[in-house]
Amino acid sequence: MNLFRSFKKLFFLHFEWLALATGLILLALMDPLTQAQTLCPIERLGFEYCPGEGLGRSVSHAFRGDFEASFYSHPAGIAAILIIIGRIITIFHRNLNINKEKFTHESI
Fold first, then answer.
1. What's the Cα-to-Cα distance from 55 to each of 58, 69, 92, 96, rounded to whole Å?
2. 70, 90, 87: which is closest to 78 by C-alpha?
3. How many other C-beta atoms lie within 10 A of the C-beta of residue 61?
4. CA 92 to CA 86: how far, in whole Å?
5. Separation of alpha carbons 20 and 1, rounded Å
6. Residue 33 and residue 66: Cα distance in Å, rounded?
7. Each residue of 12-64: pLDDT tens digit?
8. 80 to each of 11, 14, 24, 48, 71, how far by Cα in Å?
9. Element (H, E) at 89
10. Mutual orientation of helices 77-100 and 2-29 as an angle, nearest 10°?
11. 29 burial class (0-12, 13-18, 19+ CB within 10 angstroms)?
């Protein structure tokens, strides 16, 4: 049972920031000029308009320094980067505070 608690602690402390950082890295490496298959569930259901259309492309443009193309791809792209980086920092701050205090099963 101790192994399960250790895994649960590691998962709680590190999964979210790793997933967010991986997503940002993949978007930074993505070529914004290629036409890829859509991942939007709304479009997959048959609707034409997807509110997140171009968000990944916008983030990719922003990482390349092309802020005008980023804004025209999706106005929320730069804000999404800032929000995700802010969330990663918040998680690191939480992890530092948890490591300073006694970690208990009830704190998860």
1. 5, 11, 25, 32
2. 70
3. 25
4. 10
5. 29
6. 12
7. 888 999 999 999 999 899 888 887 666 778 887 888 888 888 888 899 999 99
8. 24, 20, 10, 23, 12
9. helix 77-100
10. 160
11. exposed
11, amino acid identity: F
Residue 70 and residue 37: Cα distance in Å, rounded?
19
CA distance 41 to 80: 19
Q: Distance of alpha carbon 26 from its chain centroid, rounded? A: 10
In the chain, what is the straight-line distance between the N-terminal and C-terminal CA atoms, in Å?
A: 16
